[in-house]
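Fold it.
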Amino acid sequence: MQADNKSYDDINVTPMVDLYLVLLLIFIIMTTAGVQGVKVNLPKASNAAAKKMDAPKIQAITVDNAGNIKLNASPVASVAELESKLGSIKASLPDAPVVVRGDSATQYQLIMDVLDVLGRTGFEQIGLATKPNK
């Protein structure tokens, strides 16, 4: 018999692909088996209604480009009236957050007046609403 003196330039990758597919299959099976969790016997609760937990209600102050001020969609005649209404809200909801929404054409002084009123009434959680840049 004569020995083959040809050099092998090609590598047969079929067994390697088969191995990868088997490993992928094992990985998929083991991952889905681990997600199912452990069965436990959960305790029962009473049928009575749960006490409603009240989160602080967010107060919204809106200033449009005409200079009109609204507190939670109800119109406010002046900054002084806004201060009195915010004082009563602060008494009933001391930790209430406030969001100030101002039109882009609104004069800056009116927004500063609203922020000044919020500072005088003692609100600490104040946010300025903006539109995201796209």
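The mean pLDDT is 80.
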